[in-house]
Amino acid sequence: MNTLIVSGKTIEDAIKNGLAQWKVTEDRVTVRVLEKPSRGLFGLIGVRPATVELTLLEKPEAPAPAPETTPAPAAEVKAEPAEEAAISAVEAAAEEEAAQQGPDPIEEAKRFIIDAARAMGLEVDVSVHKRKDTVTFDISGPDLGLIIGRRGQTLDSLQYLTSLVANRYSKHHLRIILDAEQFRERRKKTLEALADRLANKAVRNHQDVVLEPMTPQERKIIHAKLQDHPKVKTYSKGEEPNRRIVISVK
């Protein structure tokens, strides 16, 4: 008997690769899993494929032909056209569903967040809120300051990595938002208050006010807050990650 060792992203993919090489169906082989796939650290680093060993079964000998006999006539049973169409539709739907099966991107992203928190020594809960193509993950638990980081920098980095994980498994782009203890809303209010205060300073001193570097999301909050201000205007200057907002008197 012939054997073949093949790899793939999943065990099923590895089996398909081997069957394609031999050009046989699955009933012609036996399968032994040598190594299960591993997602690596946080599902991104050190990904290890699945490895299987396929053994080709010998073809069974064809049975000796039976003596010819004249079968008794039987009534032919045919399905009605509508019934045939219904059966075909069900079979097609089942095949399509089977073809679309795969890791759930939201569950993979949620698992990544929990694994990342555990690597920081934290046990957290993650709730998921979906709205069209936007998915918000709310993290709850003790000591979330480690996950949020200074001015949300750690949370922003974790959000970026979570987006990579989710969209790795998704067939269409998902917008990922990561929040912890309603930090996003609290940070928005802080930035809006800062925008009002610095706008008043620019008007009072008749001088431009240059803010410290911010992320694109935070700059967007400042621009939106002051876009209808009667006495100042805003623009951004510099290159990422040092791009910053300038508040200028009109």
TrEMBL record:
Lineage, broadest ranks: Bacteria, Bacillati, Bacillota, Bacilli, Bacillales
PANTHER family: PROTEIN JAG, RNA-BINDING PROTEIN KHPB
Subunit (UniProt): Forms a complex with KhpA.
The keyword RNA-binding is annotated on this UniProt entry: yes
Keywords assigned by UniProt, alphabetized: Cell shape, Cell wall biogenesis/degradation, Chaperone, Cytoplasm, RNA-binding
Role, per record: A probable RNA chaperone. Forms a complex with KhpA which binds to cellular RNA and controls its expression. Plays a role in peptidoglycan (PG) homeostasis and cell length regulation.
Source organism per UniProt: Paenibacillus melissococcoides
Compartment(s) where it occurs, according to its Swiss-Prot or TrEMBL record: Cytoplasm
Protein family according to the UniProt entry: Belongs to the KhpB RNA-binding protein family.
Domain characteristics, as noted in the entry: Has an N-terminal Jag-N domain and 2 RNA-binding domains (KH and R3H).
PROSITE patterns: R3H (PS51061)
Primary residence: cytoplasm
Stretches assigned to the R3H domain: 185-250
Protein known as: RNA-binding protein KhpB
InterPro entries from the UniProt entry: Jag_KH (IPR038008), Jag_N_dom_sf (IPR038247), KH_dom-like_a/b (IPR015946), KhpB (IPR039247), KhpB_N (IPR032782), R3H_dom (IPR001374), R3H_dom_sf (IPR036867), R3H_KhpB (IPR034079)
Jag_N domain: region residues: 5-55
Annotated segments matching region Disordered: 61-81
Gene3D superfamilies (UniProt xref): 3.30.300.20, probable RNA-binding protein from clostridium symbiosum atcc 14940, R3H-like domain
